[in-house]
UniProtKB/TrEMBL annotation:
Gene3D superfamilies: Metal-dependent hydrolases. This is Adenine deaminase. The keyword Zinc applies. The record marks 214 as: Important for catalytic activity. Residues 4-325 form the Adenosine deaminase domain. PANTHER family: ADENINE DEAMINASE. Its cofactor is Zn(2+). It is an enzyme of class 3 (hydrolase). Catalyzes the hydrolytic deamination of adenine to hypoxanthine. Plays an important role in the purine salvage pathway and in nitrogen catabolism. Its EC number is 3.5.4.2. It catalyses: adenine + H2O + H(+) = hypoxanthine + NH4(+).
Amino acid sequence: MPLPKAELHLHIEGTLEPELAFALAARNGVTLPYADTEELRRAYAFTDLQSFLDLYYALMAVLRTEEDFAELAEAYLARAAAQGVRHAEIFFDPQAHTARGVPLAVVVDGLGRALDRGEERHGVSTRLIMCFLRDESAESALETFEAARPWFGGRITGIGLDSAEVGHPPAKFREVYRRAAEAGLHRVAHAGEEGPAAYITEALDVLGVERIDHGLRCLEDPALVERLVRERIPLTLCPLSNVRLRCVDTLADHPLPAILDAGLLATVNSDDPAYFGGYAGDNFDALAEALGLDDETLRLLAANSFQASFLPEERRAALLAEVAAYEFAPRAAVRA
Ligand SMILES: [Zn+2]
């Protein structure tokens, strides 16, 4: 049995595996600029965040109907559950779909169909967090926010900020985050992945975020680290993503040990697992191997994931008790 964990940084569009992409393309009459799944996989040799985003948005063309979104989410839940994920707070990018003429209701209701069955079928509870593309305008984010109001407090429980970071500081989205706070939604944002530590501070001060997605570059600002520790602001780290997008050279160079030593509330997540070489459990395994993490460190990371989640107190406590009682397999056969 794998170590129970929550996944807090997962873009549902980033779980589109090549096989499903080709199946949906055939069903929807979409022509992909790749001969087969092998050629597509070879295109996954990214040089930076932008080179990934270019392919990521191109492949989304295959997602058109409610059924497509339901199948995408169902496939993720099955894979995540097999790797010990018991709770997932899932990002989606409404603007990437509405811009292609796919109505917001198709996206939200399609995803919802699979998420509604997630707990019963896979033992995975879920939340849906709507992200704004930060390289789009503040006006576009506000329009998207208003269009999504019917789902607030129901299917949609929070907002986030993703896509190309550099040159798009958090303050650009001050107004939409103000409205989200007013609407009682949770607020998170990507910051300090490729962008500077100052974007993390700005996300906290101007947007009032409760969690920082990535946040790696906080280490460049000791006063900020101290604040993140003091205010118990979680970081949702994505190690395999960091290597693929060249934020770190190799996993052995990942700053997780320094982050934990500083007392930061770090969690381990998969970001866009179909593109970056692994789901949540794969990220735990790869880190354990590359950094020589012991069982108690893995247990701490799993406990952190539930602490940092937006779960109600009762389920959080139950899952934390499972983590505390978890018995690790002997190291040779370990499967975190
Ligand atoms: Zn991300």
